[in-house]
């Protein structure tokens, strides 16, 4: 009976410690910043971005900044309209020529907006 109570006490102690750790720790948060989008756009324009990296950044909503979320939605729309997913494996650009030009304009707009906000 003493062994049973000892095992029960140890189990309750371990379960309680795990519950305490889980309740006090918070979930990790990732905040997409303008520099992250600019880096992604630069890599896309240089044909160095993978489809997975593009989808991970562009497919995740940006809830803390409505302006950045608009940029993200515009980039997602560019991928829908001008994307060439099947060509990435061959080392070709993520977007066709028209999409590359629009992405460059979007990148320049975001860069100018970021520079104005930093001043």
UniProtKB/TrEMBL annotation:
Keywords: Membrane, Transmembrane, Transmembrane helix. The chain crosses the membrane at residues 6-25. This is Uncharacterized protein. It comes from Vreelandella titanicae.
């Amino acid at each position: 009976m003493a062994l049973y109570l000892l095992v029960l006490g140890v189990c309750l102690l371990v379960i309680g410690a795990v519950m305490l750790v889980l309740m006090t720790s918070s979930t990790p948060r990732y905040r997409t910043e303008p520099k992250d989008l600019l880096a992604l756009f630069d890599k896309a324009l240089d044909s160095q971005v993978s489809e997975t990296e593009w989808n991970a950044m562009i497919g995740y909503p940006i809830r803390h900044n409505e302006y950045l979320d608009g940029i993200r939605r515009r980039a997602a729309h560019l991928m829908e309209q001008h994307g060439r997913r099947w060509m990435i494996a061959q080392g070709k650009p993520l977007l066709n020529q028209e999409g590359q030009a629009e992405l460059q304009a979007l990148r320049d707009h975001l860069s100018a907006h970021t520079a104005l906000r930093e001043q």
